């Protein structure tokens, strides 16, 4: 149950089997930082090339392929005053005929982060919405573990190992479960957002460097197909693919499997999800899109499959 | 501002240019009923063939192609005790490999609707989730106006004219705006659900007959591309297409256009939506899927484009 | 076995249950004309509004829902000298980032049709490819029968009933089989192309009016799910949907079913198609895309399921 | 212009920055072998784990990111008597409702390869199509260069770097052009098929080990976005993505860019492709699907942009 204070000096823009920066044990907590998607740190200095650079990898001792690792985000906070966004909606998110004729010119926007007021305020460009200030909702855009088959996968996309999922629900207090594909799991994280609209449709949230604290747990001998998660109110599954229909298929199927893991007969799981399922949209900007499937914990309690421990 | 009490005797399973059952004026209110998706009425009697049979069409006087009609759902309530659902998740919503090997056998489920407790309780089949009772969230699955080009489109799908969108947000208190394609608009509605999971992934919500009251307003000389809506907290746009990516393109583009209609410069609309947009998933069962794009009214107020009247 | 000479005076831009223009019998031949997609006839006069106006509907006596009608294109020929195309690739067919920044401006092109040389020659605009002359490959872009559920479906799209499929293989000598959904089948055709690239990616082939001769056969009591076709070398199935993946699913499944109809065990049909299937791309411009699945007749002969009559 | 005879001893199931097995120069020819997708060699012995194991990587001296490498397949031939296929069409290629209820049970099939008669004959399982013998069409299923961003990408999928494209046109005599992302390019190849249906819809062609001879050319300082290719009759571009619509967008856009590279004005390229483009379907089994876009060389000659050298 050690607490590790780790200051990164190297960052990766692909998630793969790179040399671990720190070895930790199940139950340990890591206090660290992440740079923003452009490689800028808490002093707004460029310290590594752009492209969702990741802090890590963290090796979890005794982790093996076929196990699960859980990551609990104990604390997530922007650690500087300035955040940045793009300014035009991605052309893949708009009607092709609109894109052909009506796209505004691009550029960047800057936002002032006020941790006291807990808001982000648009400070440039000056335009009609200069009064806009929105509540902070810090979240981690890109995180995951080394993928299968000796792959190394760009932090500009996502798959079964996690990656750039850009889901607003991946915030402080959430626990995310990943399948493990390589010895030590090799966990990475980065791409913090002070806030973000669903889908990350301009290709950015409010990009900013973070102070992060997370705690890992190793769950031996349990396999999952896609990332799973839980927060106070929901259990959630994640599908990463294109089109969004396929991401939705992955997430829905993983949720059926989770309910069966929790003790429901398959036929009961289908009926239950039919009337109680909810979907959230994650990233719709990357090569792979992200769909989240979720169900309320209080619904599960009602049918007697909660609060069992998620994993025995 | 008349109030019409209308008892349907004919129902349609396509939305097109059929003879109007009632002529009304802008501002009028209609109190009527809908049968369930299987054609069963408030006495649970089969009165018309299955397939989302629609009450209507209601002709709005003076409505012409190029105008908009708004429908406010004043009151929506199940009007009988028994609702029904399917029991298996649709194969298009699950991983193909799961479908090939692990589908449970199908069938039907019955739910008891308790309007006092405001719950739906699963009463058959008996299984592990027999304790399940879920809060009622009455919503209209399928409604819309006669489509363009003299088309008549099945109530098993959706397009620019509305149709079978199965969005949980189409509940009491919402106002939905449709483009008008034919003289009189010709409004239809049906397919009430006592409750429904996102996506209508088993192909049904809790299907039930409804008492309905709605009020129409005609907005002359204003054109929109896709259905729009508002409730107490949000303005919303709707895209209907496959894949879900394309539905999302339609809904997002329509929202950009709406914000521009409301006075925002295009570049400001893009920045604003980038960090403040939200998506909800409607029907993912039909030939056309439904995606809803929405933004909070209080965000719009902050940037000074609300509470102007939506339509002058 | 009558031969009907029919001169159209009315045209439809949706395929539905409109009053028949001619009643014919199984075995009959019709000699008629079609206007081009813009409603211009053999004298290049606008005689009806644009939008793939259809000649028909032709009612086939004794045809009932659940039967099949076959259409053999005995003769297809442009009947004037001038054809027209659009000049820009549709934005839905190009990378969104290309569309956002590099689309050329639109316009129209004119082509001279030389029935002696059997070529189409670009005559305007003048540009680098003014020498281009391409072989004529006359084909019918849009044809089909009245759809199910009392629908009337725009000639700008396609579904199980046929419609705007824009497949280059729908040329003279092909026989196309449609499922019948309404009494009399109600067959329509139009949208002739002197030639066309795969996909109709500029939204047009070389649009031109046609002289057409076709012969119908009614096949009682046989049902199919999607249009099927055969020419000298292939049997073919058609899927119409978006995304193209789904069109491909429909066409592939229909081909498996056809092989089973022809006497193959399902497992043999799967093995055979695995190594012998071919795909062609039809329309990728419309709301619904078209994929063709085909297999060589000589392959079927080899395994002894051909030349049986296709339909007993 | 050396000829290298190379006997592989190590194989990779991901394409990335692994240590080169051989360094060659532009103009050099390599004579080597590939194992089948299951890791079985010319003696039908398992020599490496299954999963499209690749021979390579071959380092091309002086190759740098931003250059192009061309691979000409001088000779491709199965080098043993037995080939193997799967027997069931992949569930992602069939209608979900068919998959839910009608899938045959799986298994494997064996085919006898007769290099004299140039046929593959089904030898097991015994069933109705036991007479089936099909012409050999040897092709390479999976090949490409190390991808960008230090990625290593599974040979079960494809992207801008090539990979598992399973296109029947990648046969003897074709030249394929890849963008280079890493120093030395690092070329891999494997997954030979004696023959294959379009799409590789059972997840295999007739899988077999190969004798291969290929010749590489380095083209300095020329950049492309996606693989390009040419054979005797066509120039071709490749898009790898899901859905197939997006693969088609990539391939079409790359073809427009190629025509512009060859000297056509953009507007002329659009008109030309509109009436002359052709599409072929590659892999529709993997996470990424493959679409090929092509145009006849003789069409290009007609408009005066061929036979220039492809690359100056």
Describe the fold and architecture.
The structure is a homotetramer of 312-residue chains. With 312 residues, the first copy, chain A, is mainly beta. Chain A has 4 helices and 21 strands. In chain A, the strands form 4 sheets. Chain A has a 9-stranded mixed beta sheet. In chain A, strands 3-5-16-11-14-13 form a 6-stranded mixed beta sheet, with no helix packed on it. The mean pLDDT of chain A is 96. At the A-D interface, strand 12 of A face strand 12 of D.
DSSP helical segment count of chain A: 4
Strand content of chain A: 35-45%
List the domain count of chain A as a whole number.
Answer: 2
Number of strands of chain A: 21
What is the highest CATH level, the class of the largest domain in chain A? Answer: Mainly Beta
What is the chain-wise order of helices and strands of chain A? Answer: EEEEEEEHEEEEEEEEEEEEHHEEH
Helix content of chain A: 10-25%
Roughly how many Å is the radius of gyration of chain A? 19 Å
Instruction: Please name the fourth-level CATH homologous superfamily of the largest domain in chain A.
Output: Acetamidase/Formamidase-like domains
The CATH architecture of the largest domain in chain A would be Sandwich
Please state the oligomeric state of the protein chains shown: homotetramer
What class would the helix/strand composition of chain A place it in?
A: mainly beta
> pLDDT under 50 segments of chain A (min length 5)?
none
Provide the spatial order of strands within the biggest beta sheet of chain A. Answer: 1-4-17-6-15-18-19-21-20
| Main sheet characteristics of chain A | 9 strands, mixed
From the N-terminal CA to the C-terminal CA of chain A, the straight-line distance is: 20 Å
């Amino acid at each position: 149950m050690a607490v590790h204070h780790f200051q990164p000096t190297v960052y990766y823009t692909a998630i793969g089997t790179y040399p671990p920066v720190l070895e930790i044990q199940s139950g340990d907590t890591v206090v660290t930082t992440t740079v923003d998607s452009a490689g800028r740190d808490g002093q707004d200095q460029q310290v590594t090339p752009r492209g969702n650079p990741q802090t890590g990898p963290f090796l979890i001792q005794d982790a093996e392929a076929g196990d699960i690792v859980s990551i609990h985000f104990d604390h997530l906070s922007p650690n500087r005053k300035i955040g940045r966004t793009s300014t035009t909606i991605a052309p893949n998110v708009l009607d092709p005929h609109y894109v052909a004729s009506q796209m505004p010119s691009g550029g960047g926007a800057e936002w002032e982060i006020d941790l006291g007021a807990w808001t982000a305020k648009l400070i440039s460009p000056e335009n009609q919405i200069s009064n806009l200030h929105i509540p902070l909702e810090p979240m981690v855009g890109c995180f995951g573990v080394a993928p299968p088959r000796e792959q190394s996968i760009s932090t500009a996309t996502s798959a079964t190992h996690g990656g750039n999922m850009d889901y607003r629900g991946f915030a402080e207090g959430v626990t995310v479960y990943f399948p493990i594909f390589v010895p030590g799991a090799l966990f990475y994280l980065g791409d913090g957002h002070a806030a973000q609209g669903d889908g990350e449709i301009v290709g950015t949230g409010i990009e900013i460097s973070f102070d992060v604290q997370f705690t890992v747990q190793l769950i031996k001998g349990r396999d999952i197909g896609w990332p799973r998660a839980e927060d106070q109110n929901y259990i959630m599954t994640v599908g990463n693919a294109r089109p969004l229909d396929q991401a939705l298929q992955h997430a829905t199927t993983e949720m059926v499997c989770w309910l069966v893991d929790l003790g429901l007969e398959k036929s009961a799981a289908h009926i239950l999800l039919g009337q109680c399922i909810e979907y959230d949209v994650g990233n719709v900007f990357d090569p792979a899109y992200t769909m989240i499937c979720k169900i309320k914990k209080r619904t599960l309690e009602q049918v007697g499959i909660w609060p069992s421990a998620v994993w025995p």
